[in-house]
Amino acid sequence: MKADSVFEVVKQSVSMKEVAEQYGLEVKRDGMVVCPFHADKTPSMKLNKDYYYCFGCGATGDAIDFVARLFGISTRQAGEKIVADFGLQYDSKAPRSPPRKTATKAQIAKQRELYTFRVLAKYFRVLNRWLTEYNPKNPEDQIHPRFMEAVQRKEYVEYLLDVLMSGTPEEKAEICSERNPDIRRIAHRLTQINHEKPQTAVER
Ligand SMILES: [Zn+2]
Question: Among 33, 56, 72, 145, which residue is least crowded by beta carbons within 10 Å?
Fold first, then answer.
């Protein structure tokens, strides 16, 4: 079994967008599609070159995960399906390339980008939820701190996500840098939020 080679050939040959289109999804110019994994009204799913992320339901993964989930098949079957449907070639008898001991620079950068993207997208979803959940119902209501936070931070987080989606490699690298204090703060904030007790919108 040369399980790796199917995955390798898919990764090297097709983009997330090509896979989505192949299986009937309509990809907008900005890479957004209507999410097939939840009852999506507006396109909530973003397709990056190598992975997808749904702002509505949080579904994420690479092209093979996508096809596996779409058809309810294993990742191995999904890989083979993509190979067949795209007419890709791979030598199933080729010797497997020796496992790399250390991740390449590009792999590390990719991991880092995926991590940063997840942190930002998660925070973005939380803020969006808070905007409705903590929206003051009456003019005399005190503004909830979570509503304030959502109002103050949403635009900036949206901007960072935007750069991550469509910025230059340099701009992306800057946001994804381990030294970027913004991302660290947001990751820290997410941990805090996870530990906070549920708050009611009418706290006084
Ligand atoms: Zn979704």
Answer: 72
